[in-house]
Design a protein that fits this description.
The complex is a heterodimer of chains A (498) and B (168).
Chain A (H helix, E strand, L loop, with lengths): L16 H26 L6 H27 L2 E5 L2 E6 L5 E6 L3 E8 L1 H5 L3 E7 L7 E6 L1 H12 L3 H10 L4 E2 L2 H9 L3 H23 L6 H8 L5 H31 L3 E5 L2 E6 L4 E7 L3 E8 L1 H6 L2 E7 L8 H4 E7 L1 H10 L16 H26 L7 H19 L1 E4 L3 E6 L4 E7 L3 E9 H6 L1 E8 L2 E9 H17 L6
Antiparallel strand pairs in A: 1-2, 2-3, 4-5, 4-10, 5-6, 7-8, 8-9, 9-10, 11-12, 11-16, 12-13, 14-15, 15-16, 17-18, 18-19
Helix pairs in contact in A: 1-2, 6-9, 7-9, 13-14
Chain B lengths: L4 H6 L9 E2 L3 H27 L9 H23 L3 E4 L3 E6 L3 E8 L3 E7 L2 H5 L2 E8 L7 E7 H16 L1
Antiparallel strand pairs in B: 1-2, 2-3, 3-4, 5-6, 6-7
Helix pairs in contact in B: 2-3
Classes of the chains: A alpha+beta (498), B alpha+beta (168).
Chain lengths: 498, 168
């Protein structure tokens, strides 16, 4: 164990870590007080010289205080490796001792935010499965030390890894051009909505501050614009749609760039090594055993270009909130790359040629029923509130759209399986294919409403450690066969599900 | 379909199992709990009616008695009908529970996926010495399996059995 000797005694982070911690503290303070700051800047003129100097001194003392705090946090952050355990001591006044045994470590990730990229240190986070509160982040390590820690923790034979790394080309490397292609074919509507949600959140916060200061009539004037000319309103509508479209495309582009910049995927020792991100560069080691299911998604345009994105789902620990965090998405995969990924996860290529089972016709009937009820209620509300039948013309657009979406959803829903793996397809405009090895299933549910009972269909819900997968409206006898088969597969399996 | 039908036929069939009903005393627990809740509601409505001077604020307060009675009776009937559907079965390698009239649900958890087992006794259940068994998996806890209303001795036995299967 020569490699481990570096960590046999307690070691600190790189001294540059003080800077990183300081930056985080400042950001935290700024996030909590930025609204106050704006108000303060607005009232600048009302303050006297004397008050100003006090404020400046106060702020300076506060900054120094934060710096001292950052230093103390750094100084009291100690970690070492002992008897197959990672031991961490932290806390200035309230001391905290954490120890994690190696076999509970799920992932060791490298991350670099902007500060960390500038001063060239790496944040190493150690994720564990099981209890909710055991994620550890070491804020600043030099690259060598970070690598050494990773190797020591993952107990991989160092020599073979180095040889492999030297020999191997990345399985997937997405350059700027390819990324552009990916971002242009994203779901712009979804990205637009995310963008609008973010802007709305900010505006809401600002609005709360400025009401009373007297700026609210800006918005008031804006909505008061009432073009009488029909031509004008159509023009405005078209321009609005165009602007929204451009914002949508731009926000997709920014999002893709932020998350997936310089995406590289290596395959090493039965694990994926994924690095991506612009401002926050993330490097993730994902061992194949810990992946619960993968989803291959594409949309019509992406399909034409022959690219799709792959979502890896890992076991979620405790809190559902973290789920987003444990989804690992890589974009711009070609068919051959997907084949390699599937092979590594023991997904046999033949699965795609198995018999395809589609949901019972009840599935589409129910959707039509629910949507019809929704339409009736919505029309009723519109009539009641607006008292103007002209709005009902909107149905001309909405009804065909609803029918199209329902038909698409029905057409894309299916399941098929071979001896080891289940494939569930779903989607409307996008197509999502989820591959789930049977032995990853945690428990299994059969649900049937009284309406489904009349048609002898059930919903099958398969729980995995990374969320559930539902197969809707399966004929009852077929569902029971599958139910029995899955139980047989799970119970006769000797492999660990993670 | 790749795997042969013969293989499928030989698999243990979940639909042909003899399920065990939960203890009939649990119906008393349910009725008692509902009665307690509704008594409390009745008292609240009664206090409102007698103490609030301005009847104008609650013009329909007399109607709420009927509403409460209606709700009380329909809940009792619903639970009464649903009660006979609550069944469970333990096999060598898994535990299954099913329930529901309008919304039927069958859940099976293989022992090899259970993280831990809990046995708890709610206050009302304790009067009848009944207990609940709750098993946890790594999946979403909303769909984990709970069997309510088993005699405590039996529940302990089941817990012991499951624990043995997990560790064995």
């Amino acid at each position: 164990m020569v490699e481990n000797s570096v960590f046999a005694d307690f070691s600190k982070q790189s001294p540059k870590g003080i800077l990183v911690i300081y930056g985080r503290l400042l950001l935290k303070v700024f996030k909590a007080t930025w609204i106050l700051l704006i108000i303060f800047i607005q009232r600048f003129s009302e303050l006297s010289e004397e008050v100003f100097s006090y404020i400046y001194i106060g702020i300076a003392i506060f900054f120094v205080f934060l710096l001292i705090r950052a230093y103390l946090i750094y100084k009291n952050f100690l970690f070492k490796i002992e008897d197959g355990q990672f031991i961490l001591k932290e806390g200035i006044l309230k001391k905290k001792n954490t120890s994690i045994s190696f076999d509970r470590i799920q992932n060791i990730n490298f991350k670099q935010n902007l500060i960390q990229q500038l001063i060239n240190v790496y944040e190493v986070s150690i994720e564990t499965a099981g209890s909710k509160d055991t994620e550890i982040a070491i804020k600043a390590l030099t690259y060598e030390k970070a690598q050494a820690l990773k190797t020591a923790l993952s107990q991989v034979d160092k020599r073979t890894e180095e040889v492999q790394a030297a020999l191997q080309k990345p399985l997937l490397k997405i350059g700027f051009k390819a990324l552009l292609k990916v971002s242009l074919t994203e779901n712009h509507l979804q990205n637009l909505l995310i963008f609008v949600a973010v802007v709305f959140g900010l505006l809401q916060q600002l609005n709360e501050v400025f009401t009373g200061i007297g700026n609210e009539d800006v918005l008031g004037n804006y909505t008061a614009v009432n073009p009488e000319d029909i031509f004008n309103s159509i023009l405005i509508f078209v321009i609005l749609v165009l602007i929204l479209l451009i914002i949508g495309v731009l926000s997709s582009f920014v999002r893709v760039l932020l998350f997936h910049f310089n995406l590289t995927l290596f395959v090493k020792n039965k694990s994926f090594d994924i690095t991506q991100g612009l401002l926050t560069k993330k490097s993730i080691i994902l061992s194949t055993g810990k992946v619960q299911s993968i989803t291959v998604s594409t949309n019509p345009i992406k399909k034409k270009l022959g690219i799709s994105f792959v979502t890896f789902k890992q076991a979620v620990s405790g809190k559902v909130k973290k789920q987003q965090h444990k989804l690992i998405r890589i974009v711009g995969c070609k068919i051959e790359q997907i084949r390699t990924i599937k092979e590594l996860l023991y997904v046999d290529e033949t699965i795609d040629n198995e018999t395809r089972y589609v949901p019972n016709a009840y599935y589409v009937l129910r959707m039509y029923f629910v949507v019809s009820v929704m339409f009736v209620v919505l029309n009723g509300i519109i009539l009641f509130l607006l008292k103007d039948a002209i709005w009902l013309w909107g149905n001309l657009l909405a009804i065909p759209l609803a029918i199209l979406l329902i038909q698409l959803k029905y057409k894309k829903a299916f399941y098929q399986f071979n001896k080891e793996v289940l494939l569930v397809g779903k989607g409307r405009i996008e197509t999502h294919l989820t591959y789930l090895p049977f032995f990853k299933i945690q428990n299994i549910n059969m649900k049937q409403t009284i309406f489904q009972k009349r048609r002898n269909v059930v919903n099958l819900v398969l729980q995995t450690a990374s969320g559930k997968i539902t197969i809707p409206c399966v004929e009852e006898n077929r569902a029971i066969t599958l139910y029995n088969y899955i139980l047989y597969k799970v119970e006769s399996n000797k492999e660990s599900w993670m | 379909m790749e795997f042969s039908n013969i293989e499928v036929l030989q698999l243990p069939d979940i639909s042909k199992l003899t399920f065990k009903r939960i203890h009939t005393d649990y119906l008393k627990v349910i009725s008692l709990t509902i009665t307690i809740i509704f008594s409390a509601l009745f008292i609240v409505v009664f206090l409102l009616e007698t103490n609030v001077e301005e009847i104008g604020m609650f013009p329909y307060i007399k109607h709420s008695y009927f509403l409460l009675i209606f709700l009380f009776l329909s809940l009792l009937t619903a639970f009464g009908i649903g009660f006979s559907r609550r069944k469970y079965v333990l096999r060598d390698k898994d535990v299954t529970y099913k329930s529901g009239v309008l919304f039927k649900k069958t859940t099976t958890v293989p022992f090899s996926r259970i993280q831990h087992v809990e046995l708890d006794e709610a206050p009302v259940s304790r009067i009848f010495s009944l207990a609940s068994i709750r098993v946890f998996t790594a999946g979403d806890s909303s769909d984990d399996l709970v069997i309510k209303g088993i005699k405590k001795e039996e529940a302990l036995k089941i817990k012991e059995f499951i624990n043995q299967q997990i560790n064995g």
